[in-house]
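[recover] target loaded
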């Protein structure tokens, strides 16, 4: 038996290294170099070519190399095996720190200081105290919850919005359309943590972005497709949106000629807010493979869109 590995477009080498270290008895085949399709029992993949999973008659599970499952849902067909998300606690912490960094950046006017410093200007700027600075965290799944709690524990005022009613301590919990409107109308910063699926594609469209108060800032760390880019660019150009820290994009890598690279109020980072670490992620993968080998359930199991009732 063996593991099919495909982390493209990212580097496979560290994954091979740690899988060999944690599971020394299981060979790792780096896609597309698979000498015997019958030997593949587990697939550890990210953006895998459509239809390829069907080639492995003994496949027992797909271990997705990410927490967001939109690439799995984009597969036209999937074999009937368990599909497992990669939920690495170290990644959630990194994403929460990324969100906190940008929240502080916007709250304490760091960008304006950079501009002032270029003219050697020693000016102190007013800012809103964190206890009165409203941060809307939209989407309270595993990662959104960790982010909302991290921001709240740094004494910001957190408005947490989720589709279903949810109670997080230290957070004003909102849901439904009215709740979302309230969160957006008050937010100084909006942090998008929604997964991308049929319900959330272009969730932030021109109508919802118009609910924002003038000059609100955006942090997007989940998926680019949750925003309608045309509406976001309009908002950034007409001043409704003060600035945006964008780590994720509808097309990645962000094309070289994309307008976001040049916009002065957009901060582009290359999908690194919660980049998976091979060392800790392979530990999680190895634990799940050991569970499967022992006849136990891996977790967390994901039910793909095509099989959700
Ligand atoms: C990264 O974007 C992930 O889904 O884990």
């Amino acid at each position: 038996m063996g593991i099919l590995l495909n982390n493209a477009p990212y580097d496979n080498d560290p994954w091979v290294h740690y899988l060999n270290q944690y599971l020394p008895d299981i060979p790792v085949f780096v896609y597309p170099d698979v000498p015997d399709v019958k030997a593949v029992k587990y697939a550890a993949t990210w953006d895998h070519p459509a239809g390829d999973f069907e080639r492995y008659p003994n496949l027992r599970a797909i271990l997705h190399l990410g927490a967001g499952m939109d690439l799995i849902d984009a597969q036209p067909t999937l074999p009937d095996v368990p599909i497992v998300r990669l939920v690495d606690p170290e990644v959630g912490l990194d994403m929460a720190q990324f969100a906190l960094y940008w929240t502080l950046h916007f709250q304490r006017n760091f960008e304006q200081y950079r501009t002032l410093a270029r003219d050697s200007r020693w000016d102190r700027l007013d800012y809103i105290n964190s206890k009165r600075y409203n941060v809307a965290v939209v989407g309270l799944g595993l990662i959104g919850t960790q982010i909302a709690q991290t921001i709240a524990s740094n004494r910001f005022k957190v408005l947490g919005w989720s589709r279903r009613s949810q109670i997080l301590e230290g957070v004003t919990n909102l849901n439904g359309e009215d709740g979302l409107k309230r969160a957006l109308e008050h937010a100084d910063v909006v942090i998008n943590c929604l997964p991308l699926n049929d319900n959330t594609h272009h969730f932030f469209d021109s109508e919802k972005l118009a609910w924002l108060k003038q000059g609100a800032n955006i942090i997007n760390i989940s998926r680019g497709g949750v925003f309608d880019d045309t509406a976001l660019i309009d908002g950034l150009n007409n001043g409704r949106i003060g600035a945006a820290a964008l780590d994720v994009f509808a097309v990645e890598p962000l094309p070289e000629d994309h307008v976001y690279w040049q916009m002065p109020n957009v901060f582009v980072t290359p999908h690194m807010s919660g980049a998976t670490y091979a060392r800790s992620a392979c530990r999680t993968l190895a634990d799940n493979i050991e569970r499967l080998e022992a006849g136990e359930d891996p977790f967390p199991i994901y039910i793909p869109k095509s099989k959700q009732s």
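[recover] notes: Residues 66-68, 274 surround glyoxylic acid (CB under 6 Å).
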